[in-house]
Structures
1.
Amino acid sequence: MRTKTIRFGIIGLGLMGREIASAVARWCHLEEPDFLPELVAICDNAPPPGRVEWFRAHFPGLRQVATDYRELIANPEIDALYCAVPHHLHAELYTAIIQGGKHLLGEKPFGIDLPANTAILATLREEPDLIVRCSSEFPFFPAVQRIFSLVETGAFGRIIEVGTGFLHSSDLDPHKPINWKRLVRTNGEYGAMGDLGMHACHVPFRVGWTPRSVRAVLSKIVAQRPDGRGGTVPCETWDNATLLCEAEDRAGARFPWLLKTHRIAPGQKNTWYLEISGTKASVRFSTKNPKRLELLMYAGGEQAWQELDLGYGGTAFKGITGDIFEFGFVDSIQQMVAAFFYEVAHGRPLRPSAGCVRPEETALSHRLFTAALRSQANGTTELV
């Protein structure tokens, strides 16, 4: 089998930059993909101490280290870039990467606001042959891949209600220092919706469930935080967002969708969940128990929930791990990375459920979150 090497670089050497690099370093974990990503360049305008050395130590093929992202864009040996920078930089960097002819895997929310997102997508229309996608890893858990299959086969019948969410708890500590995600100029007005929202939107958007209206309740819970220099500064962004949407499926049927993105959810540590109620079947899944899929199939008579343990075997991209073993967060990152590079190599996703977030889906998320801001400001239900 001939293997296509895809040379790529990373812009932004923070938490997720290292996660993406680690996923590539473990490429042998995937069984015989016909494409091989090679990390050849990194960039950060202010890398943490020791970070460049970490990359050099683990990636002997690294040939370029830069502090200016333009140097990576200008490098003809780079095919694709992963970019993880604060939201206010998305429009500048993403449009430059696209104009430079590089495939792009970018972070959420794909622009600090709706105008920024619109500008990115306008640039992309001038380069239709590029693969440009947004990061979102949780739908690659085997249980969620199973749920995709149930939706695609019509197993749920008519949708009654949907619940999705992404919950954090570390911000419950009022002594946690301020960072860029708590400042409007760097994070944007969306607050928790901007950084967490696409995680909760990915599955509904991919299966064609479109929010038509929203009533949002946004909460600012911690008013100020330490500034790291002995003082305190205001927390400007929304900590929690609770959105009640009326959504519409591809057949035109409507149903309620309750979406939560909470940075202050006591006891929750990076909890992603998906719940679907239908007239023929219902499911519940949460990363609190990543093996367990709760399923209710209804054909009349008794209604009983069953619990299925799903191991690694249900992944989109087959790995060397046995089917009985657990799937985790780092596996979901690797599956997402594989999905992106599969599209770069083949020009299409392996299947719809095994594809990264598309640009038009980021645009829909911006319309939803912008409507949510109007809803909060006016105390009204707003059209999306």
2.
Amino acid sequence: MRRRILRVMLILLLLPPVLAAVAGWLVAPAYLHPIRRELTPDLIRGADASFALTHADREPFEVRAPDGVLLSGWKVTPRNPNGSWVLLFHGVADNRVGVTGQAEVLLRAGYGVVMMDARAHGASEGSTATYGWLERKDTRAVIDRLFQDARQGCLASQYHGTGSPCPLPRHVFALGESMGAAIALESAGSDPRIAAVVAEASFANLREAAYDYAGLRKYPWLGKTLLSPFAWTLLYRGARLTGIPLEEVSPVKAVAARAFPVLLVCDEKDVALPCRHTQMIYDAARGPKQLWVVPHAYHTAALGFYPEEFKRRVLEFFGTYRSGSFARPSKQENR
């Protein structure tokens, strides 16, 4: 009788981690191939209506990634440009239209914006999302193209004798949300042309994100203990399927590798990527850093909850580094 009880207890103890391991194995393909949100005519009309409010000009912007994937997006020029550009990065299973609100804020302040569909998203090619590993190389190609177009504009201006100033970007900044925040941070960690980053609701690394997923987005301690095999098998199979070391996909490592200014935003009631992720990034960051914990806000909802505060913080942050000052002290605060 005692042996039977012990056997049952052992089975009950082993069953959750075994099931977690199986679940991680099965979920890995969906993790790498997120649902694609198509760029529909209605979405485009909505974005164009926003651009019209700022009298900005939108043009198609296509870039060939180093591995041959064609990335599709928009380059939007404000009526009164200040000479600086901001790369905008949307979240997983979204597309470029998802950051239209942020674009409007920046366009009104004179920033040009580049809004790309991430690989495997929107109208861009590719079937696999790598959450920053390949996307940081995509970002480098986007910046290369931005400067290339500017130089061609200079040559055309000189050829036609218009005498207008060359529109070379003075600064390149980045702003992203969720997966896009992670891509922005990882891109800046490897490309010094990105002067500063605003990142809302980034994950710290894929293992920590998997722990949250395994813990039903409420109990990360459960994902780190009894259900930890979920993260192990998810990342292992993901690496086997892609040939990419997913363990190395880490905004924490990116901000530790290169000292660049960051404004980190976390939403107090975010259950998808709780504030502990942003805090880990903040603690690891070597450059000037700010942390804004947005009260009562849910995942990537800072602009929706506090539009004026969002506008003020983002424009002050980029304005500081547009003026060339990199001595701003680190600070952490709630609203």
3.
Amino acid sequence: MADEEKPKIITPPNTLKSKVKTGGPGAVDEAALERAEAVIEGLTGSYLEWVQDDLKKLQAAFDQFVADNNAENLDKIFQISHDIKGQGGSFGYKLMTAVGNELCRFIEKTETVTPQTAEAIRLHVETLKIIIGRDLKGDGGKEGEALLVGLQQVSDKLLEG
């Protein structure tokens, strides 16, 4: 490429909008959406039971990880955290999703397991328990922000080396 040539930015057309119908047959049915939202709202109590079970499994996987220090247990922690991440926001616990995501990101980027790595994972697990224990819905407000920022700082420090 010659020095005087500048890169061209090509913006592809947004064809998705033309494919989504806003009225008539095959369109998004507002009443169906409202019914689905009501069903999800009704499952929030069940979510709290499910997540408590997930947190017990997560703690057991972490305890086994500390005892054995093997990748299989780290993978179990990742899988359970991934499930928690996927469900939290659907039931009004966006902070669970954020912390679950942070834990998954940390595990994915961890190359070697050290005592500090295990401690960081423990902090994530404990934070997930705190969120449910204190019923921190949504983003958890200022307390939620402080928890998440603290975890991100720990993760970033350890991942930097």
